[in-house]
Protein backbone atom coordinates (compact mmCIF):
# COMPACT_ATOMS: atom_id res chain seq x y z
CA UNK A 1 0.00 0.00 0.00
CA UNK A 2 1.52 3.33 -1.06
CA UNK A 3 1.45 5.67 1.94
CA UNK A 4 1.62 8.88 -0.12
CA UNK A 5 -1.21 7.74 -2.35
CA UNK A 6 -3.22 6.76 0.71
CA UNK A 7 -2.64 10.18 2.23
CA UNK A 8 -3.72 11.99 -0.94
CA UNK A 9 -6.86 9.89 -1.19
CA UNK A 10 -7.64 10.53 2.46
CA UNK A 11 -7.39 14.32 2.33
CA UNK A 12 -8.84 14.76 -1.17
CA UNK A 13 -12.40 14.83 0.19
CA UNK A 14 -13.43 18.09 1.94
CA UNK A 15 -15.70 16.22 4.39
CA UNK A 16 -12.83 13.99 5.46
CA UNK A 17 -10.58 17.01 5.90
CA UNK A 18 -13.28 18.72 8.00
CA UNK A 19 -13.66 15.63 10.18
CA UNK A 20 -9.91 15.45 10.67
CA UNK A 21 -9.80 19.11 11.72
CA UNK A 22 -12.63 18.56 14.20
CA UNK A 23 -10.98 15.54 15.80
CA UNK A 24 -7.59 17.26 15.82
CA UNK A 25 -9.17 20.25 17.56
CA UNK A 26 -10.62 18.11 20.34
CA UNK A 27 -7.33 16.25 20.64
CA UNK A 28 -5.52 19.56 21.05
CA UNK A 29 -7.95 20.57 23.79
CA UNK A 30 -7.38 17.25 25.53
CA UNK A 31 -3.59 17.48 25.36
CA UNK A 32 -3.27 21.13 26.34
CA UNK A 33 -6.30 21.47 28.61
CA UNK A 34 -4.55 23.26 31.51
CA UNK A 35 -3.14 25.84 29.08
CA UNK A 36 -6.44 26.41 27.27
CA UNK A 37 -9.01 26.31 30.08
CA UNK A 38 -9.29 29.67 31.87
CA UNK A 39 -10.74 28.20 35.09
CA UNK A 40 -10.74 25.06 37.16
CA UNK A 41 -13.35 22.61 35.83
CA UNK A 42 -14.57 21.82 39.34
CA UNK A 43 -14.36 25.26 41.03
CA UNK A 44 -17.79 26.43 42.19
CA UNK A 45 -18.80 30.08 42.49
CA UNK A 46 -22.18 31.03 43.98
CA UNK A 47 -21.95 34.48 42.38
CA UNK A 48 -21.74 33.03 38.88
CA UNK A 49 -24.60 30.53 38.89
CA UNK A 50 -26.26 30.08 35.48
CA UNK A 51 -24.42 32.93 33.78
CA UNK A 52 -25.09 33.06 30.00
CA UNK A 53 -22.18 32.95 27.54
CA UNK A 54 -19.99 36.04 27.76
CA UNK A 55 -16.40 37.08 27.00
CA UNK A 56 -15.29 35.95 30.46
CA UNK A 57 -17.23 32.65 30.24
CA UNK A 58 -17.42 31.66 26.59
CA UNK A 59 -19.98 28.90 27.10
CA UNK A 60 -21.58 30.32 30.24
CA UNK A 61 -21.72 28.66 33.66
CA UNK A 62 -23.80 25.85 35.14
CA UNK A 63 -26.04 25.53 38.21
CA UNK A 64 -22.99 25.53 40.50
CA UNK A 65 -21.22 28.46 38.87
CA UNK A 66 -18.65 26.26 37.11
CA UNK A 67 -17.23 27.49 33.81
CA UNK A 68 -18.63 25.30 31.02
CA UNK A 69 -15.82 25.97 28.57
CA UNK A 70 -13.27 24.71 31.10
CA UNK A 71 -15.40 21.65 31.80
CA UNK A 72 -15.70 20.88 28.08
CA UNK A 73 -11.93 21.21 27.65
CA UNK A 74 -11.12 18.91 30.57
CA UNK A 75 -13.97 16.58 29.66
CA UNK A 76 -12.36 16.05 26.24
CA UNK A 77 -9.48 14.33 28.07
CA UNK A 78 -11.66 11.66 29.60
CA UNK A 79 -13.75 11.24 26.48
CA UNK A 80 -10.80 10.73 24.14
CA UNK A 81 -8.76 8.74 26.64
CA UNK A 82 -11.58 6.34 27.50
CA UNK A 83 -13.15 6.02 24.05
CA UNK A 84 -9.85 6.08 22.18
CA UNK A 85 -7.92 3.93 24.64
CA UNK A 86 -10.74 1.41 24.96
CA UNK A 87 -11.11 1.21 21.19
CA UNK A 88 -7.37 0.73 20.71
CA UNK A 89 -7.25 -2.11 23.24
CA UNK A 90 -10.36 -3.70 21.74
CA UNK A 91 -8.79 -3.59 18.27
CA UNK A 92 -5.53 -5.08 19.56
CA UNK A 93 -7.19 -7.90 21.50
CA UNK A 94 -9.82 -8.49 18.82
CA UNK A 95 -7.15 -8.71 16.13
CA UNK A 96 -4.97 -11.08 18.15
CA UNK A 97 -7.89 -13.36 18.92
CA UNK A 98 -9.65 -13.14 15.57
CA UNK A 99 -6.60 -13.71 13.37
CA UNK A 100 -4.98 -16.48 15.42
CA UNK A 101 -8.14 -18.41 16.32
CA UNK A 102 -9.59 -18.19 12.81
CA UNK A 103 -6.34 -19.47 11.30
CA UNK A 104 -6.04 -22.36 13.75
CA UNK A 105 -9.73 -23.28 13.40
CA UNK A 106 -11.16 -26.42 14.97
CA UNK A 107 -12.77 -26.64 18.39
CA UNK A 108 -10.93 -23.56 19.65
CA UNK A 109 -12.50 -21.37 17.00
CA UNK A 110 -15.93 -22.83 17.72
CA UNK A 111 -15.58 -22.28 21.47
CA UNK A 112 -14.24 -18.73 21.30
CA UNK A 113 -16.75 -17.43 18.78
CA UNK A 114 -19.72 -19.10 20.43
CA UNK A 115 -18.71 -17.22 23.58
CA UNK A 116 -18.46 -14.01 21.57
CA UNK A 117 -21.86 -14.69 20.02
CA UNK A 118 -23.30 -14.84 23.52
CA UNK A 119 -21.81 -11.43 24.36
CA UNK A 120 -22.99 -9.93 21.06
CA UNK A 121 -26.52 -11.16 21.70
CA UNK A 122 -26.82 -8.41 24.31
CA UNK A 123 -27.13 -4.75 23.27
CA UNK A 124 -23.88 -2.88 23.92
CA UNK A 125 -25.40 -0.53 26.49
CA UNK A 126 -27.09 -3.35 28.40
CA UNK A 127 -23.86 -5.37 28.48
CA UNK A 128 -22.00 -2.28 29.67
CA UNK A 129 -24.51 -1.71 32.48
CA UNK A 130 -24.24 -5.34 33.58
CA UNK A 131 -20.46 -5.15 33.69
CA UNK A 132 -20.45 -1.83 35.55
CA UNK A 133 -22.95 -3.27 38.01
CA UNK A 134 -20.41 -5.97 38.77
CA UNK A 135 -17.23 -3.87 38.98
CA UNK A 136 -18.60 -0.46 39.99
CA UNK A 137 -18.38 2.92 38.21
CA UNK A 138 -14.93 4.42 37.63
CA UNK A 139 -12.69 5.46 34.75
CA UNK A 140 -10.95 2.08 34.78
CA UNK A 141 -14.31 0.31 34.75
CA UNK A 142 -15.52 2.31 31.74
CA UNK A 143 -12.28 1.48 29.91
CA UNK A 144 -12.74 -2.21 30.71
CA UNK A 145 -16.36 -2.11 29.53
CA UNK A 146 -15.39 -0.66 26.14
CA UNK A 147 -12.75 -3.37 25.67
CA UNK A 148 -15.17 -6.18 26.59
CA UNK A 149 -18.02 -4.80 24.48
CA UNK A 150 -16.06 -4.19 21.28
CA UNK A 151 -13.38 -6.90 21.28
CA UNK A 152 -15.84 -9.59 20.04
CA UNK A 153 -16.98 -7.35 17.18
CA UNK A 154 -13.42 -6.66 16.03
CA UNK A 155 -12.53 -10.34 16.39
CA UNK A 156 -15.44 -11.35 14.14
CA UNK A 157 -14.38 -8.84 11.49
CA UNK A 158 -10.80 -10.13 11.61
CA UNK A 159 -12.03 -13.72 11.45
CA UNK A 160 -14.16 -13.08 8.37
CA UNK A 161 -11.16 -11.67 6.49
CA UNK A 162 -8.86 -14.51 7.58
CA UNK A 163 -11.37 -17.13 6.45
CA UNK A 164 -11.31 -15.67 2.95
CA UNK A 165 -7.50 -15.69 2.93
CA UNK A 166 -6.83 -19.16 4.33
CA UNK A 167 -7.49 -21.03 1.05
CA UNK A 168 -5.18 -18.71 -0.90
CA UNK A 169 -2.03 -20.11 -2.46
CA UNK A 170 0.42 -17.95 -0.54
CA UNK A 171 -0.85 -19.37 2.76
CA UNK A 172 -0.45 -22.91 1.48
CA UNK A 173 3.02 -22.02 0.23
CA UNK A 174 3.97 -20.75 3.69
CA UNK A 175 2.76 -24.00 5.21
CA UNK A 176 4.77 -26.03 2.72
CA UNK A 177 7.87 -24.01 3.60
CA UNK A 178 7.18 -25.02 7.20
CA UNK A 179 7.05 -21.40 8.34
CA UNK A 180 6.42 -20.68 12.00
CA UNK A 181 2.87 -19.93 13.08
CA UNK A 182 3.87 -16.42 14.14
CA UNK A 183 5.30 -15.76 10.67
CA UNK A 184 2.11 -16.83 8.90
CA UNK A 185 -0.11 -14.83 11.26
CA UNK A 186 1.79 -11.56 11.44
CA UNK A 187 3.76 -11.46 8.19
CA UNK A 188 1.30 -13.05 5.79
CA UNK A 189 -2.18 -12.47 7.23
CA UNK A 190 -2.02 -9.34 9.37
CA UNK A 191 -0.96 -6.93 6.58
CA UNK A 192 -4.00 -8.02 4.56
CA UNK A 193 -6.36 -7.78 7.53
CA UNK A 194 -5.08 -4.38 8.68
CA UNK A 195 -6.92 -2.17 6.10
CA UNK A 196 -10.31 -3.61 7.04
CA UNK A 197 -9.50 -3.29 10.73
CA UNK A 198 -8.46 0.35 10.26
CA UNK A 199 -11.96 1.18 9.03
CA UNK A 200 -13.50 -0.91 11.81
CA UNK A 201 -11.39 0.87 14.44
CA UNK A 202 -12.61 4.27 13.27
CA UNK A 203 -16.23 3.12 13.43
CA UNK A 204 -15.78 1.53 16.86
CA UNK A 205 -14.26 4.80 18.10
CA UNK A 206 -17.41 6.73 17.21
CA UNK A 207 -19.59 4.11 18.92
CA UNK A 208 -17.32 4.19 21.97
CA UNK A 209 -17.82 7.95 22.28
CA UNK A 210 -21.57 7.45 22.42
CA UNK A 211 -21.16 4.61 24.92
CA UNK A 212 -19.00 6.70 27.28
CA UNK A 213 -21.45 9.60 27.03
CA UNK A 214 -24.43 7.28 27.60
CA UNK A 215 -22.85 5.77 30.70
CA UNK A 216 -22.13 9.25 32.04
CA UNK A 217 -25.72 10.32 31.36
CA UNK A 218 -27.00 7.28 33.26
CA UNK A 219 -24.73 8.15 36.18
CA UNK A 220 -22.67 4.95 36.03
CA UNK A 221 -19.67 6.26 34.11
CA UNK A 222 -17.15 8.88 35.19
CA UNK A 223 -18.32 10.18 38.55
CA UNK A 224 -18.81 13.80 39.69
CA UNK A 225 -17.29 16.29 40.10
CA UNK A 226 -15.27 15.17 37.07
CA UNK A 227 -16.33 17.04 33.90
CA UNK A 228 -17.79 14.15 31.91
CA UNK A 229 -19.85 15.31 28.93
CA UNK A 230 -22.62 12.76 29.42
CA UNK A 231 -22.81 13.62 33.11
CA UNK A 232 -23.00 17.31 32.21
CA UNK A 233 -26.05 16.60 30.04
CA UNK A 234 -27.64 14.71 32.93
CA UNK A 235 -27.02 17.55 35.38
CA UNK A 236 -28.35 20.17 32.94
CA UNK A 237 -31.49 18.25 32.02
CA UNK A 238 -33.60 19.78 34.76
CA UNK A 239 -32.01 23.21 34.29
CA UNK A 240 -33.00 23.64 30.66
CA UNK A 241 -35.60 26.35 31.26
CA UNK A 242 -33.19 28.38 33.39
CA UNK A 243 -29.89 27.75 31.58
CA UNK A 244 -30.39 26.06 28.19
CA UNK A 245 -26.74 26.61 27.25
CA UNK A 246 -25.66 24.22 30.00
CA UNK A 247 -27.43 21.44 28.06
CA UNK A 248 -26.63 22.58 24.53
CA UNK A 249 -22.87 22.88 25.10
CA UNK A 250 -22.02 19.29 26.19
CA UNK A 251 -24.59 17.82 23.78
CA UNK A 252 -23.04 19.78 20.92
CA UNK A 253 -19.54 18.64 21.94
CA UNK A 254 -20.61 14.98 21.84
CA UNK A 255 -22.38 15.38 18.49
CA UNK A 256 -19.51 17.33 16.92
CA UNK A 257 -16.88 14.80 17.98
CA UNK A 258 -18.96 11.87 16.72
CA UNK A 259 -19.54 13.63 13.39
CA UNK A 260 -15.83 14.33 13.06
CA UNK A 261 -14.87 10.73 13.78
CA UNK A 262 -17.49 9.40 11.34
CA UNK A 263 -16.23 11.70 8.59
CA UNK A 264 -12.71 10.46 9.27
CA UNK A 265 -13.89 6.84 9.20
CA UNK A 266 -15.50 7.40 5.81
CA UNK A 267 -12.27 8.96 4.61
CA UNK A 268 -10.27 5.97 5.82
CA UNK A 269 -12.65 3.60 4.03
CA UNK A 270 -12.50 5.56 0.81
CA UNK A 271 -8.72 6.01 0.93
CA UNK A 272 -8.09 2.32 1.49
CA UNK A 273 -10.50 1.42 -1.31
CA UNK A 274 -8.70 3.74 -3.73
CA UNK A 275 -5.15 2.83 -2.74
Brief characterization of the structure:
The chain has 275 residues and is an all-alpha fold. The chain has helices spanning 3-11, 14-31, 33-36, 68-104, 106-120, 124-135, 139-165, 169-176, 181-217, 229-236, 245-274.
Task: Tell me about this structure.
There is one protein chain. The chain is mostly helical and 275 residues long. It is built from eleven helices and no strands. The protein is elongated, with a radius of gyration of 22 Å.
How many strand segments?
0
What is the CA-based Rg, rounded? 22 Å
- The total of helices stands at 11
The share of residues in extended strands comes to under 5%
C-alpha end-to-end distance: 6 Å
Uncertain regions spanning at least 5 consecutive residues: none
Topology order in helix (H) and strand (E) letters? HHHHHHHHHHH
In helices, the fraction of residues equals: over 70%
- SS-derived structural category: mainly alpha
Principal-axes shape call? elongated
Largest sheet: none
Mean pLDDT: 88
Per-chain topology:
Layout: H1 3-11, H2 14-31, H3 33-36, H4 68-104, H5 106-120, H6 124-135, H7 139-165, H8 169-176, H9 181-217, H10 229-236, H11 245-274
Amino acid sequence: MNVQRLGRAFFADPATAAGTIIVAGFLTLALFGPLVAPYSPTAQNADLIRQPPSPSHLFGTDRLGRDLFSRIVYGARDMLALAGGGTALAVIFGTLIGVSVAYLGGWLEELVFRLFDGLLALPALLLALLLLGAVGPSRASVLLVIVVVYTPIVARVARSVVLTLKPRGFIEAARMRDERLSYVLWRELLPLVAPTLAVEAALRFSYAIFLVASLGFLGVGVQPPNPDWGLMVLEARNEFALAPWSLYVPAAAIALLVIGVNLMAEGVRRAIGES
